[in-house]
Amino acid sequence: MLAISRRTFGAMVMVGSLGFMACEAGAADAINVGIIPSLTSHSPSIIAEAQGYFEDEGLDVEFVSFQAAQPMAVAIASGDVDFGLTAISGGLISLADKGAVKVIGGALMEDPEVEGQKILVSKAAYDEGVTTPADLAGRTFGITTAGSSFHYMAHKIADKEGFERSEISLKPLQKVPAIIASLKSGQIDAWAIVPNLANSLSAGEEVVEIGEVSDYIDSYQVTTVFTSTENAENNPDLVERFLAGLSKGIDDYNAALVDKTMSEEETAGIVEMIHQYIYADQPLDKADPRIRAGAMRISPNAALSLASVEDQLGWFKSEGLVPEGVTMDVLVNTDYVETH
Q1: pLDDT tens across 152-169, in order?
Q2: What's the N-to-C CA distance of the chain in angstroms?
Q3: Which has the closest alpha carbon to 290: 54, 117, 93, 40?
Q4: Mean pLDDT value across the chain
Q5: In the predicted model, is pLDDT for residue 1 greater than 70?
Q6: Which candidate, 162, 219, 266, 303, has a CA 20 to 30 Å from the CA of 102?
Q7: CA of 207: how far to CAs of 39, 130, 189, 286, in Å?
Q8: Which residues pair with 60 in a beta bridge?
């Protein structure tokens, strides 16, 4: 894990007077928020911090970087991180079953009116005849860990195409950058990922897009907001303040990059905020188009699709990845956001 915390000078000036008043009233609550710096879906919390929305709620945020969803869930359970936005994993569900974590809201979502996640194959596999998702039987598919969202997507493709789940050979590679490198080099045949990464990869010569995840999973709640059970059940004020700040960041993200209702100047400012943490190893002029490309909708007000979460929980049980007795009540606390 790498802990990082920065605030742009412009944002500091904008919220300075509010911060002064907060200090006068009492010290802000320090919280750690997990992010995966290769995924733009973590942008709303970054925007909320840079715009001063968290500070307005009396929160002092530090971001903690991860390379996959499961380690973030472990960090939430241990108390090293307070809130996270990432996919539901087998580890997260098992931790919920032990009373350690709770899903409290929704984040990234498939929207039929917005470009969504893509199914990709290596050029080598494409040249060998893997030109549609139906051709993935007998092929290798990259995942971070067993029970990850990538694992779930691979099996949902198999289910709809009518071949056995076991016919897709899953390759756990732990980290998103490792999957990308393996796909580009032809060490794995296929992967599915959000459009900003998918479009960047398929623009080159090593990777080809062959389908869309939305054709295989209805109304997919790709990522969720989660926290410790301790926070969810015993610290509701903290949770409500975090979600209030986050929701404003979500609104800015959707307006700038999904609905594109912000001016170009405003959008450029949002992109610059995101770039502090996402693709921060690249110059802004190279990162800017990657951040903008293929932005998927984030659930307004962190609303949560219970139907999608229930489908994911059912899949985990069917694969024996989580205890059979885990219920939706164990996994989800519905006190904080609208559900559907």
Answers
A1: 999 999 999 999 999 999
A2: 34
A3: 40
A4: 91
A5: no
A6: 219
A7: 19, 12, 10, 20
A8: 30
Whole-model pTM?
A: 0.84
Amino acid at 152: Y
CA distance 138 to 117: 22
Q: 3-state class of 327 per DSSP?
A: coil
Q: Which CATH superfamily, name and number, covers 2-109+221-331?
A: Periplasmic binding protein-like II (3.40.190.10)
Side chain identity at 335, as an amino acid letter?
D
Give the other-Cβ count within 10 Å of 166's Cβ. Answer: 10
Options 3.20.20.190, 3.30.70.2740, 3.40.190.10, 3.40.50.2300; CATH for 118-215 is 3.40.190.10
- Residue-wise pLDDT tens digits, 62-89: 999 998 888 899 999 999 999 999 889 8
Residue 132 CA to residue 50 CA, distance in Å, equals 42
**What is the distance between the alpha carbons of residues 191 and 11, in angstroms, rounded to a whole number?**
38
pLDDT of residue 5: 43
Reported confidence tier of residue 269, pLDDT bands at 50, 70, 90? very high
Q: β-strand 101-106 against 29-35: which pairing, if any? A: unpaired
